[in-house]
Design brief:
With about 210 residues, this protein is mainly alpha-helical. Helices cover about 75% and strands about 0% of the residues. It contains 11 helices and no strands.
Length: about 210
C-alpha cells in the first residue's frame, strides 16, 4: 500500500471518529461540516476531497454496512428449506448478521439511537423483511395465511430490530450466538413459549 493510500485511510478514519463523537452528543441535523473538520483537525478542503457533504458521509458509512449485510443474504437466498430445517439453516445466517452488528456496535448504536438516522431504521427493517422472504420465497400461498403476510413480516422485522437496538444500547452484553438463538426461537415458537411463559399461563387458567 502506498503512502498516499495510507494517508487517505488515516484521514477518513479521523473524519469517521470525529463524526461518531459528534453524533454521540447531538442530533445529526445539528452537526455541521465545520464541526467535523475542527474535531478531526483537518481543513474543509480535505473533507470535500472525500465527501460531498455530511449527508454523503453518512450515506457512505451506511452503504458499507449494508454491503456486509447483503453479502450474507446473497449467499443464502437460494436455500430450499422446509420448516424443520429453518432453525438449523437460518440460525447461522442470523449469527453472521448479528456478528456485523457486534463488530460495528459503536456506529450502529448511534445510527439507531435518538441522534441517528430515522431512515436507516426503516432500511434496516426492510432488510429483515428480506431475511424472511429469503426463506419464504414463492413457497407459501398467501391466501392460506391466517393474517396478512405483510403484517406478519412487519411484526417480525420490527421485533427483531427492537431486540437488536436494545442489545446495542446495553453494550452487547450477550453474544451474537445468544441473541440469534433467542430471535430464531421466538420467530418459530412465539414470545411466550420461547421464553418459557406458556406453562405459567396454562397453570393460571386451570
Amino acid at each position: 500500500m502506498s503512502k498516499t493510500d495510507r494517508r487517505i485511510i488515516r484521514t477518513k478514519n479521523e473524519i469517521k471518529q470525529a463524526f461518531f463523537s459528534l453524533l454521540s452528543e447531538k442530533n445529526f441535523e445539528a452537526i455541521t461540516v465545520r464541526d467535523i473538520t475542527e474535531l478531526a483537525n483537518i481543513n474543509r478542503g480535505t473533507f470535500y476531497l472525500h465527501y460531498v457533504d455530511k449527508y454523503n458521509l453518512l450515506e457512505q458509512y451506511e452503504n458499507e454496512i449494508f454491503e456486509k449485510f447483503n453479502a450474507i443474504l446473497d449467499a443464502t437466498t437460494n436455500l430450499d428449506l422446509d420448516i424443520n430445517q429453518f432453525k438449523q439453516e437460518r440460525l447461522p445466517v442470523m449469527i453472521q448478521i448479528l456478528q456485523v452488528f457486534y463488530e460495528e456496535a459503536d456506529f450502529l448504536k448511534l445510527l439507531l439511537g435518538p441522534n441517528g438516522d430515522p431512515y436507516f431504521h426503516e432500511k434496516m427493517r426492510q432488510f429483515f423483511v428480506r431475511y424472511f422472504n429469503a426463506y419464504l420465497g414463492n413457497r407459501t400461498d398467501k391466501s392460506k395465511w391466517r393474517f396478512p403476510i405483510e403484517l406478519t413480516l412487519a411484526y417480525n422485522s420490527n421485533a427483531i430490530l427492537g431486540v437488536i437496538t436494545y442489545w446495542l444500547q446495553h453494550d452487547t452484553q450477550q453474544s451474537p450466538e445468544e441473541i440469534a438463538t433467542m430471535l430464531i426461537e421466538t420467530i418459530l415458537k412465539g414470545p411466550f413459549e420461547a421464553s418459557g411463559l406458556r406453562s405459567i399461563f396454562e397453570k393460571d387458567s386451570e
